[in-house]
Structure formats: structure tokens, C-alpha cells
Amino acid sequence: MKKLLALLLVLTLALVAATGCGGDSQQSTQQNTEELIPVKVGASPTPHAEILEAIKPLMAEKGYDLQVVEFTDYVLPNTALESGDIDANYFQHITYMNNFNEENGTHLASIAEIHYEPMGIYAGKTASLEDLADGATVGVPADTTNEARALLLLEAAGLITVDPDAGLTATIYDITDNPKNLQISEIEAAQLPRSLADLDIAVINANYALQADLSVTEDALVAEAADSTAAQAYANVLAVHEGDEEDPALLTLAEALKSDTARDFIINTYNNSVQPLF
């Protein structure tokens, strides 16, 4: 009887020990997950959020939990960054960010130039630029920097002439020659692809074109040249709040966005509609 009780005691102790080991392992896994430092980044769904998703494993390896918050407009990601609701954003080009700061008194800074998205002219009711009738309607983005960019592309296509002094702040009032009497319709950038059926042509940002399954290489009637000044003036950047430029987590994010992993993902996914700048 004593031997049986001793055997039962040994088995009980072994079971408790085994259970304890399993609990330690589970607790260790939970702790490892909890030890990742969260980094919250605002992004447009395409391509920015997709690129961020591709580098999540790289961030995890460095000890960070990359959390992507998607925005579908060009204002909220900046106001969220200014208020501290997110740690960084990745959706805009440098010219837009600088203009946003000037117009809204925000304090945003770029810590890395990541990629360039060629803007293109896309067919709506009219299939080609040669077929544009007198008085045709042309859609352009309504925000200042992207409108100027669109007007300069229309000028490069030979459709209008823009006052050279206006530069990257050009508006429809800076058009000095319009031989076809084109009617320029200013439309919120995200709405342009949906408005194509009501327009003869439209000038569309690449991210919104991609969301509408439009390819700058296959569908655009004209697109910005890869070696144009636009590639620098409209470089898409990783933006942070001023004062956070040396934050280790954000510098790690910048490094991951300029990694071979990010570069390969961009090249293999977007068919030149998104072009890495590194």
C-alpha cells in the first residue's frame, strides 16, 4: 500500500511539473508578443498599406508590432499624425506634405523618400487625346499640389499652356493657352476614377488609379516620365511629427521601407505604377 501511495505521489508530481512547463511555454509566447513595441502608421489602402504589410515581419524581427491604419482621403492621415493618434503616416508626396503644413499650421516632417507614383491621363468618354472635341471636360484633382501636377501633365501632353511662374502651385487660373477650350473640372482626387464615365478624360493619381484597376503602363494615355522632375517633387514619403525624426522605432520603419524586401515587393506587384526611389 505504501508503495502504491508513493507511486501515485510521484506520478502526481510529474503531472504538475509537466503542466507547469506547458504553462511557462504558453506564458513565454504571450510575453514575446506583448514585448513587441507597437508602431501605428496611417496609410492609403493601395499601395501604401500593402507595402507596409509586406514589411511587417521585418519590423517584428526588430522588436516592433507594425499596426497599419487605413485612410481613404488625403486629410485625416495628417490630422491624426498631428494629434498623436498615429506615430507616422505613409500616403503622401513631399510637396503635398509641405503645402499641408503651410495651409494648416501642422508640424509634419519627412524622414524617408520611399517611392514615386507616376500620374496619368486616363480615357473617359473620349478614347484618345487626338479625339478630344472642342470644349471637352477634363477632370483634375481639387487639392492645390495635385491640381498643379495635373495641369503640368496636360501641358506636357500639348493640351494647354501654364504660366511658368506658377510652378507647383498652378491652378486653372494660371492656364495661359487653351486651344481646345477644355473645361477643367476640379474633383476630389479619390472620386476621379468613379467620375470617368462623366468626363472626357481625367488626370488621376496612381494610388487611386490602382484602386480602380487602372495601370499607368497599360491604360494611361500619357503619364509622367520616370526621369522627370516630378519623380523628386512628388516622392512619396514616410512622415512623422516634428521632433520625432530620431525616434528609434520610426528610423527602423524607414529602414524597413527602404529594404530589399520592400523594393522587391513594389517592383513585382505594381507593374511600374509604383517605382522605388532607393
**Structural class from helices and strands?**
alpha/beta
The CATH superfamily of the largest domain is identified as: Periplasmic binding protein-like II
Shape estimate: elongated
Oligomer: single chain
If you average the pLDDT, what whole number results?
Answer: 89
Strand line-up of the largest beta sheet: 2-1-3-12-4-13
CATH class category label of the largest domain: Alpha Beta
Would you give the CATH topology of the largest domain? D-Maltodextrin-Binding Protein, domain 2
Strand proportion: 15-25%
Share of helix, binned: 40-55%
Task: Characterize the structure shown.
- The chain starts with a helix and ends with a strand.
- The protein has two domains: 126 residues, Periplasmic binding protein-like II (D-Maltodextrin-Binding Protein, domain 2, 3-Layer(aba) Sandwich), CATH 3.40.190.10; 111 residues, Periplasmic binding protein-like II (D-Maltodextrin-Binding Protein, domain 2), CATH 3.40.190.10.
- 42% of the residues lie in helices and 23% in strands.
- The N terminus is likely disordered.
- The protein is elongated, with a radius of gyration of 26 Å.
- The protein is of the alpha/beta class.
- The strands form three sheets. The protein has a six-stranded mixed beta sheet, sandwiched between helices.
- It is built from eleven helices and 13 strands.
